[in-house]
Amino acid sequence: MSWHILDTGSIWLKEFAVELGRMVPVQNWCPEIRNFGWFEDWERMERVADPRLSITRFPLQRGYARFPLAQLLPFAKKTEARIRAAEAAPERSTLICTAPFYAPVAERWPGPVIYYLTDMTAKYAGMNARQILGLDRRMCRVAGTVCPNSVRIAQYLTRDAGCEPEKITVIPNATREENLLERPLTCAAAPPADITDLPRPFAGVIGNLAMNMDWVLLENSIGKTPDVSWVFVGPTDMRIPEAAQSEARARLIGRGGQIGGRIRFVGAKPYGELARYARAFDVAVLPYKKQEPTYSGSATRFYEHLAACRPMLATRGFHELLSKEPLLRLVDNGEEVAAAIEPLRRANFKDGVEEARWRASREGTWQVRARDLLAASKPGRRKVA
């Protein structure tokens, strides 16, 4: 009897799957979207190195959830049969679905179903919001446990998708347990080799350096902090549709090394290395642009920085973070970023909240999230959002 996760495509779902797999037997499934996936029948085991995880990949027809392919080539029967064939007792095995598109699979599954929703899917560009709402309603009906990763998604599910509140437990994103410190970090750690030549202090930004960040605010903040080095850790290849934001990012990338050597884009790093950068920052900056689906989600990089204990400045572009003061400080523009950094500089970048962040980080790990989902799945132990 196993637990099956459909699917583990994103990094945060991989992290969750690793920790859940330490507690119960888990098989991870991830579709590979193919132009002629309907006519293919294969499975391939992928072994991920970081985090260490095994995933069964299988073909899925491109456009499988869209009209008319969803009607002409229904994928649910084949997908459910594939997972069932890997399970000796499917009626006693739990299926965790991580996207509304898997509602038809969930409806066929003979055992318990958990809906673990990590995004406000209906708000993604190009999505049919009416279709997504219908799928969310179906998923909420069939799932015995529903685990959105933010309060806003939970509110949407109860208000719009008709989910019974007693089914819901909010499971936010998190960080690895190995990123936790033995004691609060009261000063920045030694930097990784690729930023050792930069003059301190460091203001650092971690994550996908793309459209969910306010690059106009960042450009303004850098201009108003002439004695601060800015470090950007993450990929920059994703297109930004908004011209002003795209141009601001391009200017910062192009000017890296020109403004007194104070801007450094170090590129994408393996997930396991991000903690070293977070601990090396004198102050972490979370410059989210207020837009969906980001605003309604859960800020993974917040939990990474929480574990590092360093001071944090965050914009109001993430609903989840609006209630996190004093663990972080909320800012609205470049002037406020500069105004917040100056007293931190005078105090050697100690804000007196290091121990509070350290204590809070103990409850912000993927191990805790997996434990909470298991507890929520047991009858009589569900928490109301």
What would you note in describing this structure?
This protein is α/β, with parallel strands linked by helices and 385 residues long. It folds into 2 domains: 3-174 and 366-376, Rossmann fold (3-Layer(aba) Sandwich), CATH 3.40.50.2000; 177-361, Rossmann fold (3-Layer(aba) Sandwich). It has helices spanning 11-21, 69-72, 76-85, 103-108, 129-142, 151-159, 215-223, 243-255, 274-280, 300-308, 334-346, 354-361, 366-376, and strands at residues 3-6, 26-34, 44-48, 53-61, 94-97, 113-117, 145-148, 202-206, 229-233, 263-267, 283-286, 312-314, 329-330. The strands form 2 sheets. Strands 3-4-2-1-5-6-7 form a 7-stranded mixed beta sheet, sandwiched between helices. It has a 6-stranded parallel beta sheet with strand order 10-9-8-11-12-13, with helices on both faces. Helix 7 (215-223) packs across helix 11 and helix 9 crosses helix 10 (300-308). It is globular, with a radius of gyration of 22 Å. Mean pLDDT is 93; it is low at 380-385.
Note the topology.
Layout: E1 3-6, H1 11-21, E2 26-34, E3 44-48, E4 53-61, H2 69-72, H3 76-85, E5 94-97, H4 103-108, E6 113-117, H5 129-142, E7 145-148, H6 151-159, E8 202-206, H7 215-223, E9 229-233, H8 243-255, E10 263-267, H9 274-280, E11 283-286, H10 300-308, E12 312-314, E13 329-330, H11 334-346, H12 354-361, H13 366-376
Parallel strand pairs: 1-2, 1-5, 2-4, 5-6, 6-7, 8-9, 8-11, 9-10, 11-12, 12-13
Antiparallel strand pairs: 3-4
Helix pairs in contact: 1-13, 7-8, 7-11, 9-10, 10-12
